[in-house]
Structures are given as structure tokens and as C-alpha cells.
């Protein structure tokens, strides 16, 4: 007697919803993705440094001298004292630049010839962080 | 008695929608991409604690490790920086200019770029990494 095989049910993977799932995944990733953002600091640079005569009279302008690894902090024409960057941040924060007009937010930054951009960058971004406006000092010829 | 082979199930994955998905992805990436204008400039970025995420650059000025100046990825001379920036930024003067400088450069290399940007009267973002 011939054996009768049972009819097996057809096994099929339902794929009709795959595209819907894919779309949902795309939408999820589009909404949750954060593309890499550049990092930096907006630094206000006035078009010209305050003229020498003005600087003489204005003895309240904070002045920074960046010399190699050292930073000197002074006011007006004073020679200045050596400070660390955290200490400098504390001193500049006391000026509360955010509440002042642009002219009173000037911080004169003098930089020696051998100062690398990495060092200058740290000082200038710190000044900008406290709300100061960086006044560039042109080299005397 | 002849041996009967089992009938194999035909499993077919419908792939006709894959093309649509791929196109959607391509369109998304085209719209979301902002191509780096300074990709050809070799400059090692400085780092500071006082940096945050900033908006993308419309105009970028770069100074590479050998002290060459670039505006929008095109090499310019020291004297041409200001005019090239002014031309590149056009009427969008409220948009900041990204300044990328190699961290090992000294004053004589970066100061001309700063002075030019100051003279151009544009907002400047100093680009660097977060410490």
C-alpha cells in the first residue's frame, strides 16, 4: 500500500512589511542622529586696536602679555603680574563684561613672536568666554 | 518504486523597494551634507576648555602647518586674505568666518590672518577642539 504524505502547509516569510520597517528605521535614525558639529569660540575682534594716546589715559583696560608659557595680567600701562589661566579667568570674570558696552569690554592682548597658536588660542578663547573683546596690538616697526 | 524528491519552498525576498530606500538615503545625505572647504588644508587644531559647538562655516580661512593661507580652500597670499574673505562672504556679513590655524604656528604666521579678518569687520570663530 502506498504511503500517503500529509500535505504540508506552505511556509512563507511575509516580507510585505519590510519596507515599512525600513522606513521607520530611516525616520528614527534621521530624527535621532546628531551630525558632528565643529567646536570653537566666537571671538570679537575690533577692526583696529585703541590708539596709543587713548591707552595712556585709560588705565582701567585689562592688558595681557603672552610670553611663551607665561601670561602677565596688568591694568593699563602697568607691567602686570604672572597668572595661571584659571586665575586669569577669575580676574576677568570680575569685570562682568557681559553687562558693559563694547568699548568697556576691551582686553588688550599683546603676544610675543615665539608664542604658538595653541597657547594664543587658549588665552583668547578664555577672554571671549568671559565676554571680553580682544584688541589686537600691532607690532611696532 | 521511484524516490520522490521533496518539493523545496521557493523563498523570494522582494527587493524592488530597496532602490527607493537607497534613493531616499542618498537624497537625505545630499541635503544634510556640508562639504568641508578646508579638507585639503593640513592643520592640526589647537584645544581649549573654553570652546563649544558652533554653527557650520559659510566661509573659512585656514593657515596650514607650512604657513600658507587659504580662503574657502583656495590658497591666497597674505595681502589677498581680506579681499577674498569680503568677496566670499558677500552680503551675509552676519555669518561668522571660521578660522583654522595649525597649532604650532607662531605670531608672524597667524597675526596677518587675524588683522585681515579684523579689517574685514567680520565675526570670527576660532576653531579648535574641546579639552
Could you describe the 3D structure shown?
The complex is a heterodimer of chains A (141) and B (131). Chain A has four helices and six strands, in the order αβαβββαβαβ. Chain A has 141 residues and is α/β, with parallel strands linked by helices. Chain A has a domain of 85 residues: Nucleotidyltransferase, domain 5, CATH 3.30.420.270. Chain A has a five-stranded mixed beta sheet. In chain A, helix 3 runs parallel beside helix 4. The radius of gyration of chain A is 32 Å and the shape is rod-shaped. Chain A starts with 17 loop residues before the first helix and ends in a 5-residue tail after the last strand. The model of chain A has no long low-confidence stretch (mean pLDDT 80). By secondary structure, chain B is of the alpha/beta class. Chain B has a domain of 84 residues: Nucleotidyltransferase, domain 5 (2-Layer Sandwich), CATH 3.30.420. Helix content of chain B is 29%, strand content 20%. In chain B, the strands form two sheets. Chain B has a five-stranded mixed beta sheet with strand order 5-4-3-6-7, with helices on one face. In chain B, helix 2 packs across helix 3. The longest helix of chain B has 15 residues. The model of chain B has no long low-confidence stretch (mean pLDDT 85). The chains are: A alpha/beta (141), B alpha/beta (131).
